[in-house]
From TrEMBL:
InterPro entries given in the database record: 6-PGluconate_DH-like_C_sf, 6PGD_dom2, G3P_DH_NAD-dep, G3P_DH_NAD-dep_C, G3P_DH_NAD-dep_N, NAD(P)-bd_dom_sf
Ranges in a coiled coil: none
Sorted UniProt keywords: Lipid biosynthesis, Lipid metabolism, NAD, Oxidoreductase, Phospholipid biosynthesis, Phospholipid metabolism
Annotated organism of origin: Sphingobacterium oryzagri
Catalyzed reactions: sn-glycerol 3-phosphate + NADP(+) = dihydroxyacetone phosphate + NADPH + H(+)
Residues of the Glycerol-3-phosphate dehydrogenase NAD-dependent C-terminal domain: 192-334
Name under which the protein is recorded: Glycerol-3-phosphate dehydrogenase
Keyword Oxidoreductase found: yes
Domain of life the protein comes from: Bacteria
Signal peptide positions (record): none
First-tier enzyme category under EC: oxidoreductase
Glycerol-3-phosphate dehydrogenase NAD-dependent N-terminal domain ranges (all copies): 12-172
Length: 341
């Protein structure tokens, strides 16, 4: 399938999602100097009305001014996808199927389809790129993955940040990088689509583990050991899934994203884990947070990967036992501590 030529034409970039990361991405696009048009799907009608009136998202990153023409705000994701050259999917993984419920495979034809979603589709047990290929028949060459390390809150404050843009087709990856790049966003091009996407899934689980340990009272010394074991565990997993890829596990998309998610005050997965470590139930922690912790859903989904490839991943297993089998957190961490090196 030939991708629309965007060299001379005005680029039309569609965002599907209206949470904090999607809002930060709208800001990135608005601050990019290229001639382009931004189209944005917003889930709640009251939020769309507010953005149309005040140029701010009232629910997420509410202080950030957003540069989107009022006529380009939609409650209909299909219209955004049909009218865009580049489609950026940026909802929590658990909500993507609902967001795309009226969208057909034909609507994605000729588009570069970007996933900025750092999770696995529940029930399907597929990363977003695999889901798009299976359900919408989108060729892998048309799919681009956005990796970190990058927190929405720091993007909104215009702090210098780096994004990894991964695509099997380097030309399409560069087109996506070009529209996101601005004075505070640098981009790194990669061909490791599976590694970047699975790495983003796994780092949320490891950040959740770090939060659990912190909530239990473990200090920075232990967390450093946990994270160093986590990056080796991640390497083992992505190598099993895609052993032929050219990747450096110590690069920003893998180790960098793991570090910022495990340590940052802005990490929702670390916060969620901290609450679990403090004794919250999963349900009470979810109710108290205003944002989705992708690591919760990923923890269950990644078990299928562990079983499929017969992998030894004790940190992922510990998180799963705590969240889904209700093993006491202090007991699970003590067992894990005997396995760390």
């Amino acid at each position: 399938m030939k991708i629309n030529n965007m060299v001379d034409a005005k680029r039309k970039i569609g965002i599907v999602g209206s949470g904090s990361w999607a809002t930060a991405m709208v800001k990135m696009l608005g601050d990019n100097v290229l001639d382009k048009e931004i189209l944005w799907w917003i889930r709640k009608e009251e939020d769309l009305t507010y953005v149309k009136t005040y140029n701010h998202n009232p629910s997420y990153l509410s202080a950030v001014e957003l540069r989107v023409a009022p006529e380009n705000l939609y409650l209909d994701a299909r219209s955004v996808i049909q009218k865009s050259d580049i489609v950026i999917l940026n909802t929590p993984s658990a909500y993507l199927k609902d967001a795309l419920r009226d969208v057909s495979a034909e609507d994605f034809q000729g588009k570069i389809v970007v996933t900025a979603i750092k999770g696995i589709i529940p029930d399907e047990n597929l990363i977003v790129g695999e889901y798009l290929t299976k359900i919408y028949a989108i060729p892998l060459t048309q799919i681009v993955v956005i990796g970190g390390p990058c927190h929405a809150e720091e993007v909104s404050a215009e702090k210098l940040s780096y994004l990894t843009i991964a695509g099997k087709d380097a030309t399409n990856a560069e087109k996506v990088a070009e529209v996101l790049r601005n004075r505070y966003i640098n981009t790194i091009i990669s061909k490791d689509v599976y590694g970047v996407e699975y790495g983003a899934v796994l780092k949320n689980i490891y950040a959740l583990a770090g939060g659990i340990c912190h909530g239990l009272g473990f200090g920075d010394n232990f967390l450093a050991v946990l994270v160093s074991n986590a990056i080796r565990e991640m390497s083992k997993c992505v190598m099993a899934i895609d052993p032929e890829a050219d990747r450096d596990i110590n690069a920003s998309a893998y180790l960098g994203d793991l570090l910022v998610t495990a340590y940052s005050q802005f990490s929702r997965n670390r916060t969620f884990g901290h609450m679990i470590g403090k004794g919250y139930t999963v349900q009470s922690a979810q109710l108290e947070m205003n944002m989705v912790a992708e690591g919760y859903y990923a923890s269950a989904c990644i078990q299928n990967i562990i079983q499929r490839y017969a992998l030894d991943m004790p940190i992922c297993n510990m998180v799963y036992q705590i969240l889904y089998n209700r093993q006491p957190a202090n007991e699970a961490v003590k067992q894990l501590a005997q396995k760390l090196t």
